[in-house]
Design brief:
The chain has about 90 residues and is mainly α. The protein has helices at about 1-50, 55-85. The chain has one domain (about 1-85). Helix 1 (about 1-50) runs antiparallel to helix 2 (about 55-85).
């Protein structure tokens, strides 16, 4: 009984640690994806449309980066749960 309680306690601590680091993961991935997509959209679309639409291009890059960041964080949680919490 004591071993089972200890395992549950460790899993609860592991969840807390994961969710404490998730905001930093989110910020890092958001910045990473924004840099990539802004570089891609910024280069290609600014050449095509000019600098007049720079704000719209940045907004598209932000939305795309947000989508990819949420997807990556979701995948991280699924893999963490599968390999760390359920093992």
């Amino acid at each position: 009984m004591n071993v089972k309680n200890e395992i549950q306690r460790e899993k609860r601590i592991a969840k807390i640690v994961f969710w404490c680091f998730t905001p930093f993961f989110f910020i890092a991935f958001m910045r990473f994806f924004f840099m990539i997509f802004n570089f891609i959209y910024g280069t290609i679309l600014r050449v095509i449309f000019g600098t007049k639409y720079g704000d719209i291009i940045a907004a598209i890059a932000i939305l795309t980066a947000l989508f990819f960041t949420v997807a990556v964080c979701s995948m991280l949680w699924k893999q963490y749960k599968k390999h760390i919490l359920e093992s």
